[in-house]
Design brief:
Elements (H helix, E strand, L loop, with lengths): L1 E8 L31 E4 L2 H9 L9 E8 L5 E3 L23 H10 L10 E5 L7 E5 L8 E9 H5 L4
Parallel strand pairs: 4-5
Antiparallel strand pairs: 1-3, 2-6, 3-7, 5-6
Length: 166
């Protein structure tokens, strides 16, 4: 299965490491589906959603390019929330993010650790996108990144996306 990860690139940015997940435990309290104690790798099932997730963040005026990476993960290795009996809070899509939605990544990783030793363990959890009612993000377990193959596949000049006049 192929998923996508995008990153804003600015002059003097450090290199884009598609499987680096430490950014998920930054910010004041984490991101939408994880808290500061739960590192997770955010990806999208669709390339356009991965780009959109970056493009809506503050600081667009400083973005030079958006880099997109494809990440190949084992087939049949992504589960749905219901498969693990994880329930989204009623305000999971609130803006700004509510603290109770930040438990999802921890519930996923804890669920994997409770599976029997010989059980096939998924590497990813499919979660809904706040930005698209028909597309999904995939939270990947960063401890399993040796099972993933990542390649930077696109460099989108962001100036073209920013221009509004002719």
């Amino acid at each position: 299965m192929r998923v996508y990860r995008a990153r804003a690139w600015r002059p003097r940015s450090r290199a884009f490491e598609p499987l680096e997940s430490s950014g998920s435990i930054s910010g004041p309290r984490g991101w939408r589906f994880n808290d500061l104690a739960t590192e997770i790798l955010y990806t999208a099932e669709v390339e356009a959603l991965a780009v959109l997730e970056v493009a809506i963040r503050p600081g667009l005026e400083t973005i030079d390019q958006i880099l997109v990476a494809t990440i190949d993960i084992p087939d049949d290795s992504v589960v749905n929330l219901a498969d693990l009996k994880i329930t989204l809070s009623s305000n999971w899509n609130a803006r700004p993010v509510s603290d109770d939605s930040r438990t999802i990544a921890r519930e996923f990783l804890d669920g994997m650790s409770r599976l029997p030793a010989r059980a096939k363990k998924p590497v990813g959890l499919r979660v809904p996108s706040v930005l698209s009612g028909s597309d999904f993000n995939v939270l990947l377990d960063p401890a399993r990144k040796s099972e993933y193959q990542a390649t930077i596949t696109s460099r989108i000049p962001f100036g073209k996306l920013r221009k509004t006049g002719s």
